[in-house]
Specification:
The structure holds two protein chains of two kinds.
Chain A lengths: L3 E12 L2 E12 L3 E5 L6 H9 L4 E10 L2 E2 L5 H7 L1 E4 L6 E5 H13 L5 H14 L10 E2 L5 H15 L3 E5 L7 H14 L5 E6 L12 E6 L2 E6 L1 H19 L2
Parallel strand pairs in A: 3-10, 3-11, 6-9, 9-10
Antiparallel strand pairs in A: 1-2, 1-4, 4-5, 7-8, 11-12
Helix pairs in contact in A: 5-6
Chain B lengths: L3 E5 L17 E2 L6 H10 L4 H16 L21 E2 L13 H9 L2 H8 L2 E6 L2 E7 L1 H5 L3 E3 L1 H7 L1 H7 L10 H9 L3 E6 L9 E6 L6 E2 L2 E6 L4 E9 L7 E3 L2 E6 L4 E9 L4 E11 L4 E8 L4 E4 L2 E4 L5 E10 L4 E10 L5 E10 L4 E10 L6 E11 L5 E10 L4 E11 L2 H8 L5 H17 L4 H10 L2 E5 L3
Parallel strand pairs in B: 4-8, 7-10, 8-11, 9-12, 10-13, 11-14, 12-15, 13-15, 14-16, 15-17, 15-18, 16-19, 17-20, 18-20, 19-21, 20-22, 21-23, 22-24, 23-25
Antiparallel strand pairs in B: 1-26, 2-3, 4-5, 6-7
Helix pairs in contact in B: 1-2, 2-8, 6-7, 9-10
Classes of the chains: A alpha/beta, B alpha/beta.
Chain lengths: ~250, ~475
């Protein structure tokens, strides 16, 4: 039996008075992997930020239901506690706060349980090994002086420690070389199970060589214009967005 | 959506603001005249040369104009300031003998406890005079001297004659002249050649009287190859009249010697803090300044390092925290006067609730000082839209063979950074606190432990519900 995890209904979102999402519908069941593809400026990142609760993105109408609860009004921290996670396209640098201290605070906050220093050290070490991250990153300041690839790996590290119900990966593959994409994809595949869901937002389909999607959606001009299986990603790859637009958008 | 506004709490001043009854044994009239100066000198039983020095300084004081740059000093009326107040106590070497109310004050500030736990010696000044001084016997046995300037003037008159206000002469500026005229109390430290004082000495300055000035003098001489860490802490309760602090610090660091000088200044918000600090560093010697400015109404404070000997080094680490009604004009000056000298400046400031933090720095390299290295970094963080911050780093280079790095940043807490942390389940208040704590982290780790705790407590965030 399939349980609905995320249900977006006729979502309209604007930023600085400009409407970006114009009636978007999307449903994700527990355990599913969805991919949203689309040209730049089509609303992909807006969707990611809106789902996470960025205060600059205003929901004009429509509903976001997560785990059977309307979350339109929830703050980002409340959404994180409910099990939402966003892997940022451009993660922020936070000087003076180490990756380990930050993640321990975050984990305690999300789970509502204090995290022992020693046991947490062990956990982070384990997860870092899986992502082929050097141990020293745990004691470095959050994203400060990290390369693009290291920042993305650090996002996946956070995801694997916080264990969200729904992870949104916003252009996590952009700027990564083939090896890094493989490692990131393995990290994502590790948290996949029949409960956790993943929403991959991407411009290209490189990541799909490693992550098998259940559904692929095309987001254009603020709406999902076409949904299908993996073959849809192939179609985009072969024909390009302009042809796709002519074919599916009215 | 209900939005909550957060703000960073002020320094909790509770313990600092407890006033004692204004008891004194002797005090001068308000204002400054040669008669008052003679009276102070007589009260202190000083040698004639010191009386003359004071009177000469007073003349210089009158001949110099008030500074017109930096902070606004128009409300500071020296004629309303009491220059000298002898507390109703003599200097003691055991804590039990210090009068009860004065003892309570310092107990509340944690001074004797700090001595028991982590210090090699402690001095405590109350208004114009030092009321307590103690130093571990093993240091005395090694020839280390730690006493107040008055005692030094009797017991080590020759040293005083040689060093006193030679590095910061009364002609330096108006408040140096004022200091020369009315100085009282402070610390004299002498560390003989090769002696390593491995646990810190600490002096604590407390100004209890309303409308008074505190003009303590600190003179430290660290001889060849010797090492010292000196900590000074300052506070005062708040009054509705202006108080003035015009101290003077002179540090002499000889060949291969090292001095770390840490200051935490937490004066009340009615204090004019116009302090002069200077270090003269000989060959391969090192001065390390650690400076925290949290209090006062206005501050002008720019500890200066003169790197006089080849290979001398200076390191400055400073944090300034300005809130409502505060204008803190702080920074540092470095003069590279010899070849192969190096300096590092790392300054951070936070302004909030309308506070104004100004970084003013000078880096000067003399013509013959080739092969010098310097790196200057100053960063300011403004926590809201009504607070201000500025930086004015002046660099004066007189030769080409120099390696200099300079970086200045002024900014606000970024909304994107807050959102990033919140997306990991961290509340808005905690996210802000984390960012501010992270900002000062490189400084807090340099502070003496109890002050690092104080600084972190000060970055407690309080939630205030408002409809937005």
């Amino acid at each position: 039996m399939e349980n609905l995890l995320l249900n977006i209904k006729d979502l309209k979102v604007s930023i600085e008075e400009k409407e970006i999402l114009r009636g978007l519908d999307l449903s994700i069941n527990e355990g599913e992997v969805h991919v949203i593809m689309g040209p730049n400026g089509g609303g992909k990142s807006t969707l990611a930020y809106t789902l996470m609760g960025h205060p600059s993105y205003h929901i004009e109408s429509g509903a976001i239901e997560f785990d059977s609860e309307l979350i339109n009004e929830l703050r980002a921290d409340e959404r994180a506690k409910k099990g939402l996670f966003l892997s940022f396209q451009y993660p922020e640098e936070i000087s003076g706060v180490t990756v380990e201290d930050f993640l321990r605070t975050a984990k305690a906050s999300v789970t509502g349980e204090m995290q022992g220093i020693i046991s947490f050290k062990k956990l982070i070490k384990e997860k870092m090994e899986l992502l082929e991250m050097k141990e020293e990153y745990a004691t470095r300041y959050l994203n400060v002086g990290f390369s693009g690839g290291e920042k993305k790996k650090n996002e996946i590290l956070q995801m694997s420690i916080l264990e969200p119900k729904l992870a949104i990966l916003d252009e996590t593959d952009s700027g990564l070389d083939v090896d890094a994409i493989r490692i990131v994809a393995e990290g994502v595949n590790k948290i996949r199970d029949n409960k956790r869901s993943i929403l991959v937002i991407t411009h290209y389909n490189k990541l799909l060589d490693y992550i098998e999607p259940d559904f692929v959606h095309i987001l254009m001009d603020g709406k999902i214009v076409k949904s299908g299986g993996k073959e849809l990603a192939m179609e985009i790859d072969e024909q390009g967005y302009e042809n796709i637009r002519a074919k599916y958008a009215n | 959506m209900e939005r909550k506004k957060t703000y960073v709490e002020d320094v909790s001043r509770t313990i600092y603001d407890i006033k004692n009854k204004f008891d004194y044994r002797f005090k001068t009239d308000k204002g400054l005249t040669p008669e008052i100066i003679k009276e102070i000198s007589k009260e202190k039983n000083e040698p004639q040369w010191m009386t003359d020095f004071r009177l000469k300084s007073l003349e210089i004081y009158y001949s110099k104009p008030m500074p017109t740059w930096g902070v606004d000093l128009t409300d500071l009326d020296i004629d309303e300031i009491i220059a000298y107040i002898r507390p109703d106590a003599d200097m003691k070497t055991t804590w039990e003998e210090v009068p009860e109310d004065i003892k309570d004050t310092f107990e509340r500030l944690g001074i004797p406890q700090a001595e028991r736990e982590s210090l090699a010696g402690v001095g405590a000044q109350y208004d114009s005079e030092v009321v307590y001084h103690n130093i571990k016997q093993e240091l005395v046995d090694q020839g280390v001297i730690y006493t107040d300037i008055e005692t030094a003037l009797v017991e080590y008159e020759d040293i005083l004659k040689e060093y006193f206000m030679k590095l910061v002469p009364p002609t330096d500026h108006k408040f140096a002249a004022l200091h020369g005229a009315v100085w009282s109390g402070g610390s004299f430290v002498y560390v003989p050649e090769g002696v390593n004082v491995d646990i810190p000495l600490q002096s604590y300055f407390r100004l209890n009287a309303p409308g008074a000035g505190q003009f303590e003098h600190t003179l430290i001489i660290v001889e060849k190859g010797a090492k010292l860490h000196f900590i000074e802490g300052c506070s005062a309760p708040v009054y509705n009249v202006n108080n003035l602090h015009a101290g003077c610090v002179e540090l002499f660091i000889k060949e291969d010697a090292t001095l770390r000088y840490s200051t935490i200044e937490n004066w009340s918000r009615n204090m004019y803090n116009l302090n002069t600090k200077r270090a003269l560093v000989d060959k391969n010697g090192t001065i390390e300044w650690v400076s925290g400015s949290f209090g006062s109404k206005v501050s002008m404070l720019y500890p200066m390092s003169i790197l006089k000997g080849e290979g001398a080094r200076s390191e400055f680490t400073g944090i300034t925290f300005a809130s409502t009604g505060q204008h803190l004009d702080t920074g540092t000056k470095v003069v590279h006067a010899a070849p192969h000298t190096t300096s590092t400046v790392n300054s951070k400031s936070i302004s909030k609730n309308g506070g104004y933090a100004f970084y003013r720095g000078l880096l000067k390299v003399a013509p013959g000082a080739y092969g010098c290295k310097s790196s200057v970094s100053c960063e300011s963080l403004m926590l809201d839209n009504i607070s201000k911050s500025d930086t004015l780093p002046i660099i004066e280079l007189n030769n080409d063979d120099i390696d200099i790095g300079h970086e200045a940043k002024i900014g606000r807490i970024s909304d994107e950074a807050i959102f990033y942390l919140m997306s990991r389940g961290i509340s808005e208040e905690e996210a802000k606190a984390m960012i501010v704590r992270g900002f000062v982290e490189p400084i807090t780790k340099e502070l003496p432990l109890e002050y690092a705790v104080e600084l972190n407590n000060l970055i407690n965030i309080e939630l205030e519900g408002t409809i937005g």
